[in-house]
Amino acid sequence: MIARLRFHGRGGEGVKLASRIVSRAAFLAGRVAQDAPLYGAERRGAPVVAFVRLADRGPITERGYVERPDAVVVMDDSLLAQPEAGVLEGVSRATLVLANSRAGAEALRARFGVAARVVALDVSRIALASLGRHVLSAPTAGFTAKVAGLAGWDEVARAVETELAEVGLAADLVARNLAATRRAFEAAPLVGIAPGREAPAPAAAPRGFVVPRLPAAVAAPSVLAAGTSALKTTEGWRVSRPVIDLGRCTRCFLCFALCPEGAISLDASSYPIIDYQHCKGCLVCVTECPPRAIAEVREPVA
Asked: Which of 8, 36, 261, 279 sits at 20 to 30 Å (Cα–Cα) from 230?
């Protein structure tokens, strides 16, 4: 029996690394494991998907997109409001939906019409408290492994240490990630994945791997329309927003010059103004502001 997991998040949150930690932990627990990411725009804040397949014995001969997941890991719950992200595609009543969210499971189920088993945990809060940054890979992996019953703490800890060391993290950062992972692991309930509980979809004729997508007319504004970039907002990408203290601002223009989205303009007195509809929350302005006049403020619960 193959267990199929699909991870949804945004660029910069550690989606690929979370899937690798989960697959390694399951491998250390005795399972055959396969994991692979799917990149789109490769842009910070843009949707990213990764896949994990696990089997009690091998080989795993499937490849490509996980269309009927046994578990969906939602690392950014704002993606649930974006149909083009396909977070709930293939989800059934038996599917385990693991959401990083400040909203409870029942609130998510009601708001988005999720007909599945939902478990919610504020992994972002754990990451920000332990790491000081919105990097979710390790704590999300701990949350996932515990809820889905894929591995114990010893296997998860070894997987975190190995994967983070392989990407070059210093020992102190590995230790802080491990602490965040343990907090998420201990806060999560053990529910258990249910691979194959429902009948599979009717077999289709063999075909090449096709990335699911909406028709062009639906997925993007018409190229004939004026100001198309203004029509696509990115405010839903943020976990935190930059807030400017104009009393401390020296009008150095660095935030205006360095904003990758062009979401900062200058008023008649050359003070910066943030367009929150198009600010994606990358916080480059917060990092680069010389007088530290821009603060990071977490977004309120929707």
From this structure: 8
Q: CA 156 to CA 22: how far, in whole Å?
A: 7
Question: How many other C-beta atoms are found inside a 10 Å radius of the C-beta of residue 219?
Answer: 10
Of 145, 125, 158, residue with least CA distance to 185? 145
Torsion region of 71: left, alpha or beta (phi above 0 gives left; psi -120 to 50 gives alpha): beta
In the chain, what are the domain boundaries? 2-187, 218-298
How far apart CA 64 and CA 234 sit, in angstroms, is 28
SS3 163: helix
Architecture of domain 218-298: 2-Layer Sandwich (3.30)
Residue type, 143: F
Question: 47 by DSSP, 3-state: which?
Answer: strand
For the stretch 107-153, pLDDT in tens is 999 999 898 999 999 999 999 999 888 889 999 999 999 999 999 99
CB 16 within 8 A of CB 136: no
Is 15 within 8 Å of 9 (Cβ atoms)? yes
Nearest to 87 by CA among 110, 139, 95, 132: 95
Residue 200 above 50 pLDDT? Answer: no
Instruction: Specify the pTM.
Output: 0.79
- The 3 state secondary structure assigned to 55-76 is ECCCCCCCCCCCCCCCEEEECC
Do 79 and 48 contact (CB within 8 A), yes or no?
Answer: no
Q: Which residue type sits at 105?
A: A
Pair 99, 74: CB distance under 8 Å: yes
Residue 218: burial class (beta carbons within 10 Å; 0-12, 13-18, 19+): exposed
What gap in Å lies between CA 154 and CA 143, rounded to an integer? 14
Find out whether 56 and 31 touch, Cβ atoms under 8 Å. yes
Residue in the block written with tokens 């367009």: 275
CATH of domain 2-187: 3.40.920.10
